[in-house]
């Protein structure tokens, strides 16, 4: 797999609370230069980025990173992001609903965000695998499918662990035919990038892809 092919699957990401405009701008310049799938940035920067980098595919996050915002707030947040110029939104589910066994509520929330933004924007659903059992992950594959999302995503990058290859394999078995997979966190080397893509991930969320393809190793989990 060539570097260009790998980069076309990367959501070039910067979501730290302390991210400055200069850092976001640098991220966008890298994304434009290297041809990444998108930039994934805080909602507060979406309008400015879309104004200064109109050709970039802009992704942002909803209910991030804990996911326990009320459903209506997430829907409104997603709608505002799309109005500001985002063409992709990555929403965090309410993990409390999962732990309470209320999977219908999870599906309803996903569908509420989908209805708010319409059919065209890409909707990715972050389930935060590090907090889930295998059975919960399987049930969430159905929630994401029934909620009409485009992607199931492993992690926020702010939990206790990131993407694991076994979760990609599990998702492949249980998601619907129209749902794709995004891995985030836990991708530390170029070999990791290739492995996750070859095992079924269609997108990888990372801030380190450019460095990884130069032989660097990512920091953290």
Could you characterize what this model shows?
The protein is an alpha/beta fold. The protein has one domain: Aldolase class I (TIM Barrel). Helices cover 43% and strands 16% of the residues. An eight-stranded parallel β-barrel has the order 1-2-3-4-5-6-7-8, surrounded by six helices. Helix 4 runs parallel beside helix 6, helix 6 runs parallel beside helix 7 and helix 7 packs across helix 8. The two termini are 24 Å apart. The relative contact order is 0.14. The mean pLDDT is 95.
Task: Please supply descriptive tags for the structure shown above.
TIM Barrel; single chain; 8 strands; eight-stranded parallel barrel; 221 residues; 10 helices
In short:
With 221 residues, the chain is of the alpha/beta class. The chain contains 10 helices and 8 strands.
Describe the secondary structure blueprint for this structure.
Blueprint: H1 3-7, E1 10-13, H2 21-34, E2 38-41, H3 46-52, E3 58-62, H4 71-84, E4 88-92, H5 95-99, H6 103-117, E5 122-126, H7 134-146, E6 151-153, H8 165-174, E7 180-184, H9 190-198, E8 203-206, H10 209-212
Parallel strand pairs: 1-2, 1-8, 2-3, 3-4, 4-5, 5-6, 6-7, 7-8
Helix pairs in contact: 4-6, 6-7, 7-8
């Amino acid at each position: 797999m060539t570097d260009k092919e790998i980069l076309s699957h990367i959501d070039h990401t910067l979501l730290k609370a302390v991210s400055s405009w200069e850092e976001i701008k640098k991220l966008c310049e890298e994304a434009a230069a290297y041809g990444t799938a998108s930039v994934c940035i805080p909602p507060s920067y979406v309008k400015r980025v879309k104004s200064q980098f109109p050709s970039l595919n802009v992704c942002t996050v909803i209910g991030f990173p804990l996911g326990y915002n009320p459903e209506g707030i997430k829907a409104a947040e997603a709608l505002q992001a799309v109005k500001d110029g985002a063409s992709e939104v990555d929403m965090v589910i309410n993990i409390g609903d999962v732990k309470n066994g209320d999977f219908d509520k999870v599906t309803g929330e996903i569908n509420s965000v989908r209805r708010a933004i319409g059919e065209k924007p890409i909707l990715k659903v972050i389930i935060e695998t590090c907090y889930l059992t295998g059975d919960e992950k399987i049930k969430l594959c159905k929630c994401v499918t029934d909620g009409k999302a485009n992607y199931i995503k492993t992690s926020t990058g702010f939990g206790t662990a990131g993407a694991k290859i076994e979760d990609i394999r599990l998702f492949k078995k249980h998601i619907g035919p129209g749902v794709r997979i995004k891995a985030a966190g836990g991708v530390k080397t170029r070999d990791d990038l290739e492995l996750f893509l070859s095992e079924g991930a269609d997108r990888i969320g990372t801030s380190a892809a450019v460095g990884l393809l130069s032989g660097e190793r990512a920091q953290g989990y």
